[in-house]
Design brief:
Layout (H helix, E strand, L loop, with lengths): L2 E6 L7 H9 L4 E4 L8 E5 L2 E5 L12 E4 L7 H11 L9 E4 L7 H13 L10 H9 L6 H6 L1 H14 L6 H14 L4 E2 L1 H10 L4 E4 L23 H8 L8 E7 L2 E3 L12 H16 L3 H6 L2 H12 L6 H8 L1 H8 L9 H7 L4 H18 L11 E3 L1 E2 H11 L3 E5 L9 E9 L4 E2 L11 E8 L3 H6 L8 H14 L3 E5 L7 E3 L7
Parallel strand pairs: 1-8, 1-9, 2-5, 2-8, 5-6, 6-7, 9-13, 12-14, 13-17
Antiparallel strand pairs: 3-4, 10-11, 14-15, 14-16, 17-18
This protein binds inosinic acid.
Length: about 500
């Protein structure tokens, strides 16, 4: 019997689903403890891709029960849609449990989140009402799933408080009736998830805890205020599940070799220039779809997402990018003002001249990662910002979450470069630091260490560690040395089975 947690160490989207999928094969229960439908993980059903937002990706394992603890905020409408989207594929009726104490996301909160983002005073949220739901919970205006079933008058009163607080134009009774209808539809799945987990644990079952988002989005330890509203790591397990976190026997921290971020906020090792990235991606999409920017903008946001996602999946870079990557050593020398003899004319034309050269080269690299790793949002199809792996931030995640083993994802996507970089410190105005500079991130200049690159196909072919190319082995070993934590699993390709497993937590 074990309780194993899989958590994100970065800004979410680290590829936790792949690890949960593997470990879930041994699990009797797969349980989420925080977040809400702001998460998005893609699962493949036959030839079809489905995106889950609330239901744990462990749903793919028919032997496992799946549960949402009280720390997950629940949009009942979204949950019903998700259950329906899986019907005929996975039977969830008898396997899915949701804690009665989980807070309900209401239309007032969703409207407030959207308005805030539209006014430009948000943090680039997912617009699902997650932030306002947590604000109402802390402000004692929240309403829990169980309130609708056992104390409807309290639910009504709480909804009225929210209507007043958010200056919502709708009627309280109408909101109540709508939400109560959804909750009644879901009635059979509600339970006390704490008891369920503890009972299963005492019966010797394996429990897998599936985190959402990641350490750098933690409201206490992340890049505040550009964070989510619940603790994605070990602290969230105690608060969001009501279990003693010392029962967790193993914490796997998922780290993506290509670092990414969506939404606003600092990202010191970011390579892409967002405005250029958006322009280039949208130009590709307009051409492929055969529409103008005005025609695209005239669509509602759901249709825009569908179009973006359709073409994001096929995104490819112009020839110039491959050319620069093939001549990366010369390109680096050129932007640093060193002599390159002879300097290929094409390189100079692509990179331009003056101060902008370095920015341009960084951007090309970031776009190369984005394309290689398919870094587009699962829900919106928007390109993610990309950059080099930050080991200082990773060490912070390891220390604060008691991570015992790392899962590195997308190692293959960093391939085919003469050298790769990792952040090992930050240069501030007056000093160089090796700790995460929480209050000075905006001005922090990363200090990089350069490591040898590797052939991505050799990574994809490897099925045991020693089959990895030397550069990739050294990269993994350097991560372990720097953060003082062993690597337990390495993702070597997009396929379900493309991974090298060094240790399995349920066999500890
Ligand atoms: P919220 O959680 O919707 O309030 O958004 C707050 C911040 O967290 C924004 O920067 C979001 O982009 C980010 N965020 C929330 N969920 C995810 C996720 O699953 N992956 C990546 N970023 C996320």
């Amino acid at each position: 019997m074990s309780i194993v947690a899989v958590i994100g160490t970065q800004w979410g989207d680290e590829g936790k689903g792949k690890v949960v999928d593997r470990y879930g094969q041994q699990a009797h229960w797969v349980v989420r403890y925080q977040g809400g439908n702001n998460a998005g993980h893609t699962i493949v059903v036959g030839n079809e891709k489905k995106i889950l937002h609330l239901i744990p990706s462990g749903a793919m394992h028919p032997q496992a029960g799946v549960a949402l603890g009280q720390g997950v905020v629940i949009s009942p409408e979204a949950l019903i849609q998700e259950i329906e989207s899986l019907s005929g594929v996975y039977t969830l009726e008898s396997r899915l449990k949701v804690d009665l104490r989980a807070h309900v996301v209401t239309p007032m909160q969703i409207a407030a989140d959207i308005q805030r983002e539209q006014r430009g005073s948000g943090v680039g949220s997912t617009r699902n009402g997650i932030g306002p739901c947590h604000e109402d919970r802390a402000g004692k205006r929240g309403v829990r799933c169980g309130d609708f079933l056992f104390n409807p008058e309290q639910a009504r009163r709480q909804l009225e408080k929210q209507i007043e607080h958010w200056s919502y134009a709708g009627s309280g009774e109408q909101v109540f009736m709508e939400l109560a209808g959804f909750i009644r539809k879901l009635e059979k799945i509600f339970a006390n998830v704490t008891d369920l987990v503890l009972d299963a644990y005492q019966q010797g079952k394996n429990i897998l805890l599936e985190g959402a988002q990641g350490h750098l989005l933690d409201p206490d330890f992340g890049t505040y205020p550009h964070v989510t509203s619940s603790n994605p790591g070990i602290a969230g397990i105690a608060a969001g599940l009501g279990i003693d976190p010392r029962l967790v026997s193993h914490v796997t921290g998922v780290v993506k070799a290509v670092m990414t971020r969506v939404g606003d906020g600092a990202f010191p090792s970011q390579l892409v220039q967002e405005r250029w990235q958006k322009e280039e991606v949208m130009k590709f999409i307009y051409e492929k779809e055969g529409i103008t920017a005005e025609e695209f903008e005239a669509h509602d946001s759901k249709t825009q997402n569908v179009i973006r996602k359709k073409w994001a999946a096929q995104f490819s870079l112009p020839e110039d990018y491959a050319y620069v990557m093939q001549h990366l050593s010369d390109a680096e020398k050129y932007v640093q003002g060193q002599t390159v003899d002879p300097l290929p004319e094409r390189l100079a034309t692509i990179l331009g001249s003056g101060e902008r050269k370095q920015t341009r080269l960084n951007h090309l690299l970031g776009m190369y990662f984005m394309a290689a790793a398919g870094e587009f949002g699962a829900t919106t199809g928007r390109p993610r910002r990309t950059g080099w792996l930050d080991l200082v931030a990773l060490k912070d995640a390891v220390e604060k979450n008691g991570i015992n083993g790392l899962a590195i994802t997308k190692l293959d996507c960093l391939g085919d470069l003469p050298e790769v970089k990792v952040v090992v410190g930050y240069s501030l105005e007056d000093q160089t630091v090796s700790k995460f500079p929480e209050f000075r991130l905006q001005g922090a200049i990363p200090v990089y260490e350069c490591l040898s690159g590797w052939d991505s196909r050799a990574v994809t072919r490897a099925s045991i560690f020693v089959e990895l190319p030397g550069g990739a082995q050294s990269y993994v070993r350097r991560i372990e040395d720097f953060v003082h934590c062993p690597v337990h699993i390495i993702g070597t390709g997009p396929g379900r089975n493309q991974a090298i497993e060094l240790h399995h937590p349920f066999s500890f």
